[in-house]
Write a structure and sequence with these properties.
It is a single chain. By secondary structure, the protein is α/β, with parallel strands linked by helices. It has 2 domains: 2-17 and 237-415, Alpha-beta prism (UDP-n-acetylglucosamine1-carboxyvinyl-transferase, Chain), CATH 3.65.10; 20-219, Enolpyruvate transferase domain (UDP-n-acetylglucosamine1-carboxyvinyl-transferase, Chain, Alpha-beta prism). The chain contains 12 helices and 23 strands. It has helices at residues 20-32, 46-57, 91-102, 122-130, 167-175, 194-206, 238-251, 271-277, 310-317, 339-349, 379-391, 410-415, and strands at residues 2-3, 11-14, 36-40, 61-65, 68-72, 82-86, 105-111, 134-137, 146-151, 156-161, 183-188, 212-215, 218-221, 231-233, 254-257, 281-285, 288-292, 300-302, 324-327, 352-357, 360-366, 371-373, 395-397. The strands form 6 sheets. It has a 4-stranded mixed β-sheet, with helices on one face. A 4-stranded mixed β-sheet has the order 4-5-3-14, with helices on one face. Strand 12 (212-215) and strand 13 form a beta hairpin. Helix 3 (91-102) runs parallel beside helix 5 (167-175). The protein is globular.
């Protein structure tokens, strides 16, 4: 357990570890590419370690060289004919490698933590089956474990639901260039977290693959393409940076993040603009972003494109006069925890006035006081409630080690601001 010391007017200039989302996409693309891929400023955390472990179990060669990951691509081949893959608590690994294993020739089982076995994946399985893959939920409940009887991805048309996770779409997109025929994917209904799909497409193109969006949320990938290995610089993780920008906003301080700026490919790099709507001041350059507090007003906002920012914003809103309403984030119920339920319980524990909506939250500050925060083994709950401790004495974070999932050095950086 860690108790967060209160602080005022935090002033800092920092660099954030590499993006988890970019690192994991780079690992998958590098494994499928021709030649070697070098990922500079890669993130080393539980999620990327799980991804690497599973890729190695599939027969890929990946090793560390200083601050780089080196990946030896197999040109679309999956070396192992069978494998048991433990994705632990990494949703990215479970989803991305379900499609990647489909490119192989053999039988593969993907399993994970007890929480992973509760997280839906049926929409992805339906999409892959429509592309000629034989894949199913072992327990027939639409959740992992997943069985893949692989003989490549045939291709063709695919209708895919996108209202639970954009990672289903990213998973198929990443592997579609190696299908036997052209792949066309049409999203049915709403697509959540669209910026993560844009990140996937941009990286695919940067590694030499062509993809078109013929109409909104309808994607075509021609066959016969291969990624080309290359050196790729991973920018700082904008989701991780959000806690430091918010720290400035709620303490009336100033924090500059030196490796995320206007050129970022991450949707969450837009979080400072939300803080600006709440009264904070922001400045940006090509590769840096600075936020200065305080926040002076609540807002009403649809965060469907930035669901990982909901917890950060929820805590920030405690210190902004007025009401903050966050909507269109029902998919948060399928993350490492049911985040809408969990944060409501913990906010009430510290005296906040909060209403849990089916798809969001309403927050109006409150008479705040210290408490022991249950983290539900969810890294984002631990990091978000650390922000509350900057202003509220006696905030104690249980199981602080859960941040190792994406940001092992979080408390080292945060407590030394």
């Amino acid at each position: 357990m860690i108790e967060i010391p209160t602080k005022e007017n935090i002033t800092a200039e920092i660099a954030i570890p590499g993006s988890k989302s970019i690192t994991n996409r780079g690992l998958v693309i590098g494994a499928l590419a021709r030649g070697e891929t070098k990922l500079i400023n890669r993130l080393e955390c539980e999620d990327t370690e799980v991804m690497i472990s599973c890729l190695r179990n599939l027969g890929f060669t990946i090793f560390t060289d200083g601050d780089c990951f080196l990946v030896r691509g197999e040109g679309g081949l999956i070396p192992a004919r069978q494998a048991q893959l433990n994705t632990e608590n990494s949703g990215t690994t479970m989803r991305f490698l379900t499609s990647l294993a489909s490119l192989g020739k053999g039988e593969y089982i993907l399993d994970g933590s007890p929480r992973m076995r509760e997280r839906p994946i049926e929409d992805l399985l339906d999409g892959l089956n429509s592309l000629g893959v034989t894949v199913h939920s072992v327990n027939e409940n639409g959740c992992p474990p997943v069985s893949v009887r692989a003989n490549g991805i045939s291709g063709g048309g695919c209708r895919l639901a996108g209202d639970i996770s954009s990672q289903y779409l990213s998973s198929i997109l990443l592997c579609a260039p190696y299908a036997g025929e052209e792949v066309t994917i049409k999203i049915t209904g709403e697509l959540v977290s669209r910026p993560y799909v844009d990140m996937t497409i941009r990286m695919m193109r940067e590694f030499g693959v062509s993809i078109t969006e013929d109409e909104q949320n309808s994607f075509t990938i021609p066959p016969g393409q291969k990624y080309e290995g290359r050196t790729y610089a991973v920018e700082g993780d904008a989701s991780s940076a959000s806690y430091f920008w918010a720290a400035a906003a709620i303490t009336g301080g100033r924090v500059k993040v030196n490796n995320i700026g206007d050129s970022s490919i991450q949707g969450d790099a837009g979080f400072p603009r939300i803080l600006e709507k709440m009264g904070a001041t922001i400045k940006t350059g090509p590769d840096w972003t600075e936020v200065a507090g305080p926040v002076t007003r609540g807002i009403k906002i649809d965060l469907n494109e930035m669901p990982d920012m909901v917890l950060t914003l929820a805590i920030t809103s405690l210190f902004a006069p007025g009401r903050t309403v966050i909507t269109n984030v029902a998919n948060l119920r399928y993350k490492e925890s049911d985040r809408l339920k969990a944060i409501t319980v913990e906010l009430k524990k510290i005296g906040a006035i909060v209403e849990e909506l089916p798809d969001g939250l309403v927050i109006e500050g409150g008479d705040l006081h210290g408490a022991e925060i249950d983290t539900y083994n969810d890294h984002r709950i631990a990091m978000a409630f650390s922000l509350a401790g900057l202003r509220v004495p006696g905030i104690k974070i249980k199981n602080p080690g859960c941040v190792n999932k994406t940001f092992p050095s979080f408390f080292d950086l945060f407590l030394n601001l």
